[in-house]
Design a protein that fits this description.
alpha+beta; Alpha-Beta Plaits; 5-stranded antiparallel sheet; 6 helices; 8 strands; about 50% helix; about 15% strand; elongated
Length: about 270
C-alpha cells in the first residue's frame, strides 16, 4: 500500500471546509413577503408637510401651464399677418359694438318700464282724486276744509222754504263746494218744500234753528250773504236772526247714497 495516499480524503491541514448548500425559500414565505411589501406601500402615508408640498407643486404646474398657453397665444398674435390682426381687431370692435347696442336696448326698456309705471301710478292718483272730487259734489263722501256756519233762528215761524233755497243759491254762486242743512247733504238736485215754519229738504222735515254748514272760501261766502237786499236782510225782515261764523275747519259729513243711473251711460270707450 502506498503510504502517500490519503485513504480518508482528508483535507490538507489549513484548507477551507466546503459550505453546505442553503435551503430554498418556501412558497408561503415568498407570498408573505409580497403582502408585507404591498401593505407598506399602499395606502400611501403622507405627512402634513408632504401633502402641502404636493399641493404647492400642483399649483406651480398649473400656473406654468396657463402661462405657457398664454405665451403661445401671444406668440400666435405676434406671428400673425397684418391682415389677420386687422380682421381680429374688427371682430373685437364689432363684438364690443353689439354689446353696447344690447346694453342701450336694455337701458331703453328699463326706462320705458319705469316711465310706464310712473304714468300708471300718476293715472291712478288722478283717478282717485277725480273720484274724490265727484264724490264731494255728489255728496257720497265726507268733506273737510275752511268755510262758514250760517245759523238762522225763526222765532215767529215766518221763514219760508224759498228763503232757505235763496241762501243755498247765493252760497253756490260764491263758490261753496259742500253744504249740509240740519244734517241733510245738499247736492245738485236738492229741493226745498213745505210752508213757513214747516220746511222739508229733499222730503225730510227740518226745524228751526236752520244750520247751514258750508265749505268754501270764507272771505267770499260771508259777503255774498250780506249784500244789500240779500239773504241776511230778507230774513231779518221776517224777524229771523242770522249768525255767520267763519272757521278754518268745517266738516260736512252728511252723506247721500250713491245712485246708479237707469239710462245714462258714459260716452268714453
Amino acid at each position: 500500500m502506498n503510504h502517500d495516499e490519503n485513504p480518508r480524503n482528508e483535507q490538507p491541514e489549513g484548507a477551507a471546509s466546503p459550505v453546505p448548500d442553503a435551503p430554498a425559500p418556501s412558497p408561503a414565505a415568498e407570498v408573505s413577503g409580497r403582502q408585507r411589501l404591498k401593505a407598506g406601500l399602499w395606502p400611501p402615508r403622507l405627512s402634513r408637510a408632504q401633502l402641502i408640498v404636493a399641493v404647492l407643486l400642483f399649483g406651480l404646474g398649473l400656473g406654468l401651464a396657463i402661462q405657457v398657453r398664454s405665451t403661445s397665444d401671444d406668440s400666435a398674435l405676434r406671428g400673425a399677418r397684418q391682415e389677420d390682426l386687422v380682421r381680429i381687431l374688427d371682430e373685437v370692435d364689432d363684438r364690443t359694438q353689439r354689446l353696447e347696442d344690447e346694453k342701450q336696448r336694455l337701458d331703453d326698456q328699463r326706462t320705458e318700464l319705469e316711465n310706464s309705471s310712473d304714468q300708471a301710478e300718476e293715472a291712478r292718483k288722478q283717478t282717485l282724486e277725480k273720484e274724490r272730487q265727484l264724490g264731494i259734489l255728489a255728496g257720497t263722501v265726507a268733506a273737510q276744509g275752511p268755510g262758514i256756519t250760517l245759523t238762522i233762528t225763526d222765532p215767529s215761524g215766518a221763514v219760508a222754504p224759498d228763503m232757505l233755497l235763496d241762501a243755498i243759491q247765493e252760497l253756490r254762486a260764491a263758490g261753496a263746494e259742500a253744504i249740509q242743512v240740519n244734517g241733510v247733504r245738499v247736492v245738485a238736485n236738492t229741493y226745498f218744500s213745505g210752508d213757513a215754519g214747516s220746511v222739508e229738504v229733499d222730503g225730510k222735515k227740518i226745524e228751526a234753528p236752520y244750520e247751514f254748514t258750508v265749505i268754501g272760501k270764507p272771505q267770499d261766502l260771508e259777503p255774498a250773504l250780506n249784500i244789500p237786499g240779500g239773504v241776511v236782510q230778507t230774513l231779518e225782515k221776517e224777524q229771523a236772526t242770522v249768525l255767520v261764523e267763519r272757521s278754518d275747519d268745517i266738516v260736512v259729513d252728511a252723506l247721500r247714497p250713491a245712485q246708479r243711473p237707469d239710462y245714462a251711460r258714459s260716452s268714453s270707450p
